[in-house]
Amino acid sequence: xxxxxxxxxxxxxxxxxxxxxxxxxxxxxxxxxxxxxxxxxxxxxxxxxxxxxxxxxxxxxxxxxxxxxxx
Length: 71
Description:
Helices cover 0% and strands 44% of the residues. It has 71 residues and is mostly beta strands.
């Protein structure tokens, strides 16, 4: 997944999962590791910039390496 700007669709604070919508309308669920960002600060409609971690190719969930709000 290329880094870029996304819109938050939904947030699961317990699982630390954020559903992001790309400019083309596609959505992906992204895991936000502890210490990367406090997902409780996010809500639907927020715009964020995300850089993704490389996956191991074994069907791992997509993880955010960095995430920050876009103003």
